[in-house]
Design goal:
This protein has about 280 residues and is α/β, with parallel strands linked by helices. The protein is built from twelve helices and eight strands. It starts with 5 loop residues before the first helix and ends with a helix. The N terminus is likely disordered.
Length: about 280
């Protein structure tokens, strides 16, 4: 889960089975015996700074694609406002490094995402930017969840109504924990709104890709079934088959995902040191 920095807020596997594999070109998915293994929406989480998790996730995605699946790749790492630039980059670049340079998006360890982007280029998979820009997230902090959406989206996701208290409380706990329980109380509601707006944008843009299948590359917080993108994905409209996979340090948290991939904990400095200052 990637939260707004304090200063910004204050400033405003698929294994090839036996039998015949058929590919539905309209949906970009495999049918027949392997259909159950490739959902319409596959949500692959991450711990942002854990290279082993990135490696394991890429290997899982590559197995599926090499077996014939051709989903859209939706990425948290790119802001949806930059989709036109991303389209030009994917069309004009022959390697992932070129795409990364064109997008010039700071704040991510792009070495970890290079293989995913290169796979998309090599296999001609569309890449969709699904995050909310920092500027627009700051606007949500000030003006509420509905402020970044058009009237149709507000109606579809019922954003004119209060979001259930348990949902907001769970997101609030994540925000507080993610900021070492050192956020001023007055800042928490706005940051919860921004996090929810990100999840809604991801869900909306994933739905917009239909009838193609979609793989979401995002932080574990976004792919959680209880509070993240899955909860928004099927909040209206036809039900999609969704599979959420968490890449979790040390394992556990099985109730939060459909499947958990245990990864070794990354050695890191005290993440709360910057807040203690």
């Amino acid at each position: 889960m990637k939260h707004l920095p304090l200063v910004a807020v204050l400033a405003g596997v698929l294994l090839a089975g036996c039998g015949v594999i058929k590919k539905d070109s309209a949906a970009g998915r495999i049918t027949g015996m392997q259909e159950a293994a490739n959902p319409q929406v596959l949500l692959l989480g991450e711990v942002h700074d854990n290279p082993q998790g990135h490696k394991l996730r890429f290997e899982e995605l590559k197995k599926r694609v090499d077996a014939g699946w051709h989903p859209v790749i939706a990425m948290e790492q790119f802001d949806h406002e930059d989709q036109a630039l991303l389209d030009d980059a994917v069309k004009g670049c022959v390697d992932a490094g070129c795409v990364i340079r064109v997008m010039n998006k700071k704040g991510w360890d792009w070495q970890q995402y290079y293989p995913v982007i290169q796979l998309a280029l090599d296999k001609h998979l569309p890449v969709v930017a699904v995050n909310l820009s920092r500027a627009n997230a700051s606007k949500v902090v000030r003006d509420g969840v509905a402020s970044s959406f058009d009237a149709k989206t507000v109606a579809e996701y019922r954003l004119g109504e209060p979001i259930s208290a348990d949902w907001r409380k769970a997101q609030e706990n994540e925000i507080r924990t993610g900021h070492c329980n050192m956020l001023p109380d007055m800042m928490v509601p706005g940051m919860v709104d921004a996090q929810m707006a990100r999840d809604i944008w991801m869900a909306k843009l994933i739905r917009d890709q239909r009838p193609r299948d979609v793989v979401l590359i995002a932080g574990n917080g976004h792919v959680r079934k209880d509070i993240g993108v899955p909860r928004w994905l099927n909040s209206f409209g036809s039900k999609l088959t969704v599979k959420a996979v968490g890449y979790v340090e040390g394992g556990g948290q099985k109730e939060l995902f459909d499947e958990v991939r245990t990864i070794p904990a990354q050695k890191r400095a005290d993440p709360c040191a910057k807040f203690k200052k």
